[in-house]
Amino acid sequence: MHVLVTGAARGIGAAVVECLMAAGHTITACDIDLDGLAQRWGERAGAAYRALDVTDVAAWSAAVEEAWNRQPVDV
């Protein structure tokens, strides 16, 4: 399963990514904090990451399209 997770640089979002990856899922981790994403997920197999401002509709479209092109998004 491919899951797109927002707020993934820290806190609950990062914990969700950890749990899903431990279960073997493919992740696209998103956050406005690109440096935080790179530090946390940059070296992890199975996780892609990208900057995303969740208040920006165009950014959402781009994020979903990029994730979908990697693998169809289930959640």
How would you explain this protein's 3D organization?
- This protein has helices at residues 11-22, 34-41, 57-70; strands at residues 2-6, 26-31, 47-51.
- The N and C termini lie close together (8 Å).
- It has one domain (2-70).
- The protein has 75 residues and is α/β, with parallel strands linked by helices.
- It is 45% helix and 21% strand.
- It has a three-stranded parallel beta sheet with strand order 1-2-3, with helices on both faces.
- The relative contact order is 0.24.
- It contains three helices and three strands; from the N terminus they run βαβαβα.
Write a brief structural summary.
This protein has one domain.
Q: Keywords for this structure?
A:
75 residues, alpha/beta, three-stranded parallel beta sheet, 3 strands, globular
How many separate helices? 3
**Can you tell me the residue ranges where pLDDT is under 50 for at least 5 consecutive residues?**
none
The helix/strand order is EHEHEH
- Strands, count: 3
Can you tell me the number of structural domains?
A: 1
**How far apart are the termini?**
8 Å
Secondary structure elements and their pairing?
Layout: E1 2-6, H1 11-22, E2 26-31, H2 34-41, E3 47-51, H3 57-70
Parallel strand pairs: 1-2, 2-3
